[in-house]
Design a protein that fits this description.
The protein is an alpha+beta fold. 34% of the residues lie in helices and 29% in strands. It is built from five helices and five strands; from the N terminus they run βαββαααβαβ. A five-stranded antiparallel sheet has the order 4-1-3-2-5. The protein is globular.
């Protein structure tokens, strides 16, 4: 059953451009280890970055493969250069399109400051569940 994982980074001021270069290297690694990017937003004014990923199967196994990937391990330390905080939320049941939209607003402190009018679409993703 498909599920959705939301990932949020709070970044150091003026580090968004460097973070995006790093993040675009991460996307193909996550995709080849079982995650499908749904969407991603760069919130420049808030120094935040939010992405949503679809996955099927055992999340622990997918994360093990992702973090164990040699290319991902090579990039691991770089995120600490830009990130102040990182949070992950995962849907607890199979997701549908309405849930993807609703869940973003249900986690105060996670995505409470997301204002789509001030966000730049960092990656269009594939909104197919």
């Amino acid at each position: 059953m498909p599920r959705v994982q939301f990932r949020r980074y709070e970044l150091k001021p003026d580090s968004m451009d460097d973070f995006l270069v790093w993040w675009h290297q991460i996307v193909p690694i996550r995709e080849r280890t079982g995650f499908a990017l749904l969407c991603a937003f760069a919130l420049h004014e808030q120094n935040e970055f939010v992405s949503a990923w679809r996955y099927d199967g055992d999340l622990a196994e997918l994360e093990r493969r992702y973090y164990g990937d040699p290319e991902r391990r090579r990039l691991a330390g770089e995120s600490r250069t830009w990130a102040v905080a990182h949070a992950v939320r995962t849907t607890g049941k199979p997701a549908d399109s309405a849930e993807v939209t609703a869940l973003v607003g249900e986690h105060p402190g996670f995505t409470a400051r997301v204002h789509i009018t001030t966000a730049e679409l960092a990656h269009p993703g594939r909104l197919t569940l």
